[in-house]
Amino acid sequence: MARVRMARQDRRAQLTALAWSIVAEDGADALTLGRLAEAAGVSKPVVYSHFDSRSALLVALFEEYDARQAAALEAALEAASDRDQASLEACARAIATAHVDCVVDQGRELAGVAAALEGTPELAEYKRRSDETFRAQCRGALTPFAGEGVVSTAALTAIVGAAEALSAAAAAGSVPRDEATAELAATIASTVARLRR
Q1: What is the pLDDT of residue 125?
Q2: CA 27, CA 108: separation in Å to the nearest integer?
Q3: One-character DSSP codes across 103-128
Q4: Does 79 lie in the same domain as 45?
Q5: Confidence of residue 197 (pLDDT cuts 50, 70, 90)
């Protein structure tokens, strides 16, 4: 039987899905470009044509996750504004729900990938871009509720920190998902409400 050549975009999607599976089954330490090639049934050069290093593969996993998270947040904010006539509480709840749900639904794999990248320049750059994107989405959604002020970078940094900590706790099972979501929503709402004074 002749092998069917996949379109580049389809192959990359296949490789990232397989990479997440490897991390879920055996942990991030087991994820190598060779192991990924074997799982995909392709040669190593095929994998290297998509990811020039293991770090690049790990960053690609984060980028794929971030794209899903950004889309979930956008959809949640849109739904909240339709349902609740755009209140601060509805907006904060939408941000909290989207963030916690995405992290919990991704599972422990996300923490494993982060640990595998710890201390690399790739992670630092990825993290900077990721936080910037999340802050920009939150600023855009929350600024209408900040009175005449703007949602400051300091306030957004606090929100990001709370979102990461509570989502990680929910993913680890040390805090129930609904409690993490409620606490994050309350933190976001109170942070923005302070800006109105």
Answers
A1: 79
A2: 9
A3: HHHHTTHHHHHHHHHTT-HHHHHHHH
A4: no
A5: low
31 and 110 housed in the same domain: no
- Does 104 have pLDDT greater than 90? yes
pLDDT at position 11 over 50: yes
CA 65 to chain centre: 5
Q: What total number of domains does the chain contain?
A: 2
> Up-side HSE of residue 76: CA atoms within 13 Å toward CB?
23
What's CA 193's distance to the chain center, in Å? 26
Question: pTM of the predicted model, to two decimals?
Answer: 0.82
Question: Distance of CA 32 to CAs 6, 27, 38, 39, 64, Å?
Answer: 21, 11, 10, 11, 18
Together in a domain, 68 and 165 = yes
Same domain, 133 and 190: yes
Residue of 66, 100, 88 whose CA lies nearest to 147: 88
Per-residue pLDDT tens over the stretch 151-162 = 988 999 999 999
CA-nearest of 84, 39, 69, 194 to 138 is 69
Which CATH number characterizes residue 46's domain? 1.10.10.60
Whichever domain contains 150, its CATH number is: 1.10.357
- Angle of helix 121-142 relative to helix 177-194, nearest 10 degrees? 70
Give yes or no for a contact between 145 and 192, defined as CB atoms under 8 angstroms apart: yes
Query: Could you tell me the residue range of the domain that residue 22 belongs to?
Result: 1-52
